[in-house]
Write a structure and sequence with these properties.
mainly alpha; 11 helices
């Protein structure tokens, strides 16, 4: 019996709570209309806290915060509204206002994406279409700056790849230096051989020889006389030798008896 009574009390409290009206939401709407954004924000927060998973509370809270020039916080509330949204219309309005927050922060790239999502949920909305075109134009006129860290990392990775490539080449041919030395020695040997052949050709052609010493200052006539005297002495010596040969070898008789 006690368990049954406890169960009934829980059920009654649940029904009462479900039938409880959200008085904070309309109060916030009235204050928002009067441009009393601070008090409106307080009511919307109470509505969001007491009635969780209610997309309209987060959406209205985001709009009120946006009016107070707090785009980052407003964006967070619109994202929560999208998460709790039950219809495409609710998602469309939240995405549209996220695009407005991005435009305020000059984040045109994300603004384009937000307005695109808004149009996916309501392609007929002309205001979203206009803002989408405007965001695309602003993105074209104001391209995002390049990420220096990304470029730096890219250059670093490129240098690393080049180093790895050099190491790979060295590993691939460990006798590269020896081959180069051998090639250099072979080239030097061929060069020396070529130089030797060139030297030999020059010698054959009479090129590259040292200059011969010139004759002394003796006259040509004196030289001729000396040569004649030498020739005459050789002639006398030769005649004397021939005479001795004749005496040593008498002639043989013509016939043998």
């Amino acid at each position: 019996m006690k368990k049954y009574i406890a169960f009934c009390l829980i059920l009654i409290s649940f029904v009462v709570k479900s039938q409880e009206k959200d008085k904070f939401l309309p109060n916030g709407n009235e204050k928002f209309a009067d441009k009393n954004y601070v008090d409106a924000e307080a009511d919307y927060r109470l509505s969001q806290a007491k009635f969780k998973k209610k997309s309209i509370s987060s959406y209205n809270l985001g709009t009120t915060i946006y009016k107070q020039n707090q785009a980052a916080e407003a964006k967070y509330q619109f994202e929560k509204a999208i998460k709790d949204a039950k219809t495409k219309s609710e998602k469309h309005q939240a995405y549209h206002n996220i695009g407005n927050c991005m435009m305020k922060e000059k984040d045109y790239s994300n603004a384009v994406e937000a307005y695109k999502n808004a149009l996916r949920n309501d392609p007929s909305d002309e205001e979203s279409r206009y803002n989408y075109a405007l965001a695309k134009k602003m993105l074209k006129d104001n391209p995002p700056p390049k990420d220096k860290n990304k470029d730096k990392n890219k250059d670093k990775n490129k240098d690393k790849d080049n180093k790895n490539k050099d190491k790979k080449d060295d590993k691939k041919d460990p006798n590269k230096d020896k081959k180069d030395d051998k090639k250099d020695k072979g080239d030097k040997k061929d060069k020396d051989k070529k130089d030797g052949n060139d030297k030999k050709d020059k010698q054959d052609k009479g090129e590259g020889e040292k200059p011969q010493p010139k004759p002394s200052g003796a006259s040509k006539q004196r030289i001729d006389n000396l040569l004649d005297a030498v020739n005459n002495e050789e002639k006398k010596v030769q005649e004397k030798v021939n005479a001795q040969k004749v005496q040593a070898n008498p002639k043989k008789p013509e016939k043998d008896w």
